TrEMBL record:
Polar residues composition-biased segments: 72-92
Similarity comment: Belongs to the FPP/GGPP synthase family.
GO biological process, one term: ubiquinone biosynthetic process
Protein name in the entry: geranylgeranyl diphosphate synthase
Cellular component terms per the entry's GO annotation: transferase complex
One Gene Ontology molecular-function label: geranylgeranyl diphosphate synthase activity
Pfam families documented for this protein: polyprenyl_synt (PF00348)
Organism domain of life: Eukaryota
InterPro entries membership: Isoprenoid_synthase_dom_sf, Polyprenyl_synt, Polyprenyl_synt_CS
Annotated stretches, region: Disordered: 68-100
Record-listed E.C. numbers: 2.5.1.29
Cofactor needs: Mg(2+)
Organism (species): Didymosphaeria variabile
Length: 383
């Protein structure tokens, strides 16, 4: 019955793979320098939501049942075993756990055994790489945002200072890049490398409130277009391209690869729209990170942009980035009495509907139900 309610817990569907994720990531982050080792592994101690790796694992499983690209037409060297020795073991002889397992050996590792699982070792590794890139961006983001908490604990910049937080973020990117290179798939490498550039581009777009950065900007649709482009770059790029990479590693046909990307792009945009809404509606305690931070940072996100459309007096506050005394409170009041939060939710709902629509042609499976359920979870989440 296609109308039967979905009862699957998406995190449960890939629980077996997720169980090893943090341990494997910690292994990728081993350093002979004890302080670097500690700072690099810091965010692996607190429980993240694992949204991105969960999506990669679910997509891997859901696409395993779809048509494959024919071997001859595939330009990719999917899952080719690697025989060369680990570079990291030479680089870092003093690190007890810096030894990087090669693809051929990690396939035999208990943590990567694939029996009764359609998820390939390379796709599990992709899930880890995706979480590493995400965590790296958080280390940098908390410095840029002067944030004091993350995952209900002091943020790394508070615990270790800006310099070490930034360097640890760079170290995560380095190790993520090594793991990526080891997948021996040039298209996947290119995709994830472009994500790193996109994250920086998104963050740069955010440094300016509007495309023109005028003193007293007038509201136009461009403000929303600019915001959505920024949102794609800073949030949806990682999710969409890692979903695409999962399908590529599985040898999926071109239309399946494209559908995986569209799913990721749309749920990614919805995810950040909800994030920007929660910044207005949920307490910092519940979020596990500072709430109401965006206006304080001078940022006009979706709820404010929608409110501005109906209340043109917000223009001058946007122009001066809510920097004068009382600006933040005034903006907050205008947003609460507007339909900005509702409109943000409605737009996020449109995106998750599109995400579900894009994978509608996948054969029915628990993993596909999980991908659909993730859309509901994104809309219902409070942290
Ligand atoms: C969180 O947004 C931040 C991001 C989604 C991306 C941040 C990207 C950079 C800092 C660019 C540099 C990244 C790398 C990998 C070199 P937010 O501040 O709106 O969310 P928050 O409330 O969780 O802090
Ligand atoms: Mg932040
Ligand atoms: Mg930020």
């Amino acid at each position: 019955d296609p109308k039967a309610p979905i009862s699957v817990d998406p995190f449960q569907t890939v629980a077996k793979e997720l169980k090893f994720l943090t341990g494997n990531i910690r292994q990728l982050l081993g350093s002979g320098h004890p302080t670097l080792d500690t700072v690099a592994k810091y965010y692996t101690q607190s429980e993240g939501k694992y949204v991105r790796p969960t999506l990669v694992l679910l997509m891997s499983r859901a696409t395993a049942l779809t048509p494959k690209m024919s071997r001859e037409s595939s330009p990719l060297s999917v899952n080719r075993p690697i025989t060369s020795p680990s570079v990291l073991s030479d680089e870092n002889p003093s690190a007890p756990d810096a030894e990087y397992p090669s693809v051929s050996s990690f396939a035999n590792d208990a943590a990567y055994r694939t029996e009764d699982s359609e998820i390939l070792p390379s796709q599990r590794r992709l899930a880890e790489i995706t979480e590493l890139i995400h965590t790296s961006s958080l280390l940098h983001d908390d410095v840029i945002d002067h944030s004091v908490s993350r995952r209900s604990a002091p943020s790394a910049n508070i615990e270790f200072g800006n310099k070490m937080a930034v360097l640890a973020g760079d170290f995560l990117l380095g190790r993520a890049s090594v793991a990526l290179a080891r997948l021996r798939d040039p298209e996947v490498t290119e995709l994830l490398a472009s994500v790193i550039a996109n994250l920086v581009e998104g963050e740069f777009m955010q440094l300016k409130n509007t495309a023109s950065d005028e003193r007293n900007p007038v509201w136009t649709e461009n403000a929303l277009t600019y915001y959505l482009q920024k949102t794609y770059l800073k949030s949806a790029s990682l999710i969409s391209k890692s979903c695409r990479a999962a399908a590529i590693l599985g040898g999926s046909s071109q239309d399946v690869v494209e559908a995986s990307y569209q799913y990721g792009k749309n749920i990614g945009l919805a995810f950040q729209l909800v994030d920007d809404m929660l910044d207005y509606t949920i307490s910092g305690e519940e979020l596990g990170k500072p709430a109401g931070a965006d206006l304080e940072l001078g940022l006009a996100t979706a709820p404010l942009l929608f409110a501005w459309k109906d209340n043109k007096s917000l223009g001058k506050l946007v122009g001066r980035k809510f920097s004068e005394a009382g600006d933040v409170q005034k903006a907050r009041d205008i947003v609460s009495s507007s339909s900005g939060l509702e409109q943000t939710r409605a737009l996020a709902q449109e995106y998750v509907d599109k995400a579900i629509e894009s994978i509608a042609f996948f054969p029915d499976s628990d993993a596909k139900d999980g991908l659909i359920e993730m859309c509901t979870k994104v809309m219902k989440r409070r942290k």
